[in-house]
Amino acid sequence: MGSDTRVRSSRVSSAAGVLAACLTVRRVLESRQVRRSLRAVPSEAPAASGTGAPGGARVVCVVPMYEETALAEATVRFWREVLRAKDVDAVVLVTTAKETAPGGATTHTLLRELLAPGGAAHENLVLLHCEEVCPYRAAQLDMAVGWARERFGPDGDERLWIGVYNADSRPHPDTFGELRTAIGAGPQVRVFQQLVDYVVPEREGTGAVAAGNAVLQTWWTLSHYVARNERGLDGGSLWARTSPFSTFGHGEFVRADFLQRIGGFPRYAYADGLLLGWVARLAGEPIGLLVNRDVAEVPRTGRDLVVQQTAWLRGLLNFGVTVDWCRRQGLVRLPDNDVRVLRARHLAIPVTWGLSTAVVTAGIVAEVRRVIRGRSSAAGLAAMAALAAYPAVPALAATTRQQSAMGRGRRVAGVLASWPVEGLAFWPALYGHLRHGQQAPAKTPR
């Protein structure tokens, strides 16, 4: 019996060592990619033709607003400055009839009051109210696209670009100049996604997990997303063509003629940002990358993080639904084998995301038990140290100004608090997906 126990313990230790080695290599490769991505961010704004230039692109930014009273004033203030700089042609704020506020002001009421003093000086900052009650925000987005077509219709859909942002989005001022330069350099690209810096909200009630989530989300964007996007644009091999990436739902730009082709923003499932990019990939459309950042907030508390991560993971499980929808619409342009591989690789993302926390924790616990029983080796202790360090590595180097200001100790503590929470969110997402339950909460928290 004792011999069998020692054999099993040795096997567990060996497995933990292999896992630690694989995860260490992963972090090394991620670190190299993060450094590359940080160097790629331009220090100066690219040359751009500006708004209304003859033959130039018309850029209309759309911000769907639902229960955003806390951010309404700051959102209006930010986009007014963007319009004053003539970086975009118009900004459309779209509220929804889904929002009710018994005894209080709705987002629409507050925005209407905020915009009234601007008058004609801000005629390109438009407020619309969507009466169509849809489970998802696609109805709001499509309403704004209709307005943009009426306003800039004579220029044609080939010149009209729709940018999508959230109420908390604060894109870098050079974003729109970079977009116009990219449009001119690659006229065949009809969808762009910009990189994102995730930041901790500077509002009351923000907990430690917010700092960690900001670190991890920005790290993922600079490492995995950039690498997958660049590999996918190459498209020379099966591995490149099936690189699993999409759009985010904020900091994305899509040309109006592509939206016309697919029937508007996707509304057949949750997470239109992911769905839009997946439809583009299946239709053979490249997704260009903009390196100037959209600055977006992360959830403030652990509870809010679980709700948001569960919603995101539930969205990631909708790739198969997207394939079926695209086939019915006659949009699929990829070979069947590519679609199968792409489906498998997209499914692997939420599954490995959910399992990683459990597997790494199990490896650490197994080695701790060996230490307690006096059976641990130097190699086992090294494996345990590597596994314990794995979640914290992204916190060692700051990737944004806010991260630099918060200090390494706060970043590490935040990551150690946030990382297990993110992993736990997979299981309620999987449960809801298998039971065909509610796709997502009515609103993901900020």
Would you report the number of β strands?
Answer: 8
Distinct helical segment count: 17
SS-based class? alpha/beta
Shape: globular
Straight-line N-to-C gap = 54 Å
Major sheet strand order: 3-2-1-4-7-6-8-5
Percent helix range: 55-70%
Beta-strand fraction estimate: 5-15%
Oligomeric category: single chain
Q: Main sheet, how many strands, which sense, barrel?
A: 8 strands, mixed
**Overall pLDDT level:** 87
Radius of gyration over C-alpha positions, nearest whole angstrom? 23 Å
Q: Low-confidence parts, pLDDT < 50 over ≥5 residues?
A: 43-48
Secondary-structure element series = HEHEHEHEEHEHHEHHEHHHHHHHH
What report would you give on this structure?
The chain has helices at residues 2-40, 72-84, 107-115, 138-152, 175-185, 208-234, 238-241, 256-262, 272-282, 302-316, 319-329, 336-372, 378-389, 393-396, 401-406, 408-424, 426-434, and strands spanning 58-64, 90-96, 125-130, 160-164, 170-171, 191-199, 252-255, 287-297. With 446 residues, it is α/β, with parallel strands linked by helices. An 8-stranded mixed β-sheet has the order 3-2-1-4-7-6-8-5, sandwiched between helices. Strand 2, helix 3 (107-115) and strand 3 form a beta-alpha-beta unit. The protein starts with a helix and ends in a 12-residue tail after the last helix.
